[in-house]
Specification:
By secondary structure, the protein is of the alpha/beta class. It is built from seven helices and nine strands. Helices cover 30% and strands 24% of the residues. Strand 4, helix 6 and strand 5 form a beta-alpha-beta unit.
Length: 256
């Protein structure tokens, strides 16, 4: 992942007047412009005029959470695949900015809430949640992506984000219960452990893969809700993301 100045918050990086390298200053200025364009053209329509939410998107430099070859695509409205270092390992997809924004809006994040960010990859969604919620737990199972996650969050001094390296379907039971569980990808099954970690009144947001789709690209954004101990879910909008391996349907599982 890209190298960023250590121990600086997102705002501090963008406002540091001591930058002597004009090239760095120019790149930071261009980054801010691209983020503002992304917010105005892709996100604002669906996130209303919530200043805190829009500020979280505008203050999170997406390119710093990407490998160098993907940085030029940071502010395009497409999903970007992140490949773990070395051979093997599961790829992660950085959700398109518009899809991410609509999911976060539907999740109903509150400033005092506790969020579990599942499949956090290199930390972009966790950085956004850090600007919206009271506390964030970033869960990642791929070790090389987890290392990048920790490095990126440390670089931006996001102390309110705790990182955990563990299987995604297990969640973070020691840190539960959560107001929101956010899954960065599509699911087919294996949500029981995560749903059990929701507070009463809490939500789990993900993209639900539609079985039997011949294209393999059909899905719905859904919000699972836990109310008085019961569970249900609502379909939010059409969306696609690759199914995360931890949440693939197997013969021994029953889809919720």
């Amino acid at each position: 992942m890209r190298v960023v100045p250590p121990n600086k918050g997102l705002g501090k990086i963008m406002q540091d007047t001591r930058l002597e390298d004009v090239g760095i200053a120019d790149r930071l200025s261009q980054s801010a412009l691209h983020r503002r364009t992304m917010v105005d053209c892709q996100i604002r329509t669906f996130d209303g005029d919530r200043p805190t939410a829009l500020g979280a998107y505008a203050g999170s430099p997406r390119e710093y959470f990407l490998p160098g070859e993907l940085a030029p695509l940071a502010y395009s409205d497409i999903g970007l695949q992140l490949k773990p270092a070395g051979s093997g390992g599961e790829r992660r997809t950085l959700l398109p900015p518009l899809v991410l924004a609509r999911l976060i809006q539907a999740a109903g994040v509150v400033s005092t809430g506790m969020v579990l960010d599942v499949g956090a990859a290199t930390g972009y969604s966790s950085a956004i949640f850090a600007g919206l919620a009271g506390r964030v737990v970033a869960l990642e199972s791929e070790s090389s992506l987890y290392n990048a996650l920790r490095s990126n969050l440390d670089a931006f001094d996001l102390a309110k984000v705790q990182t955990i390296l563990a299987p995604l379907a297990e969640g973070a039971p020691k840190e539960a219960p959560f107001d929101l569980i956010f899954i960065n990808g599509a699911v087919e099954a294996n949500l029981e452990a995560l749903l059990a970690q929701l507070k009463d009144g809490g939500n789990l947001v993900a993209i639900k893969h539609l079985p039997g789709d011949p294209t393999g690209r059909a899905g719905k954004a859904v919000r699972y809700e836990k109310i008085d101990g019961g569970r249900g879910y609502r379909v939010l909008f059409d969306a696609f993301a690759p199914v995360l391996d931890a949440f693939r349907k197997g013969e021994q599982f029953t889809f919720l």
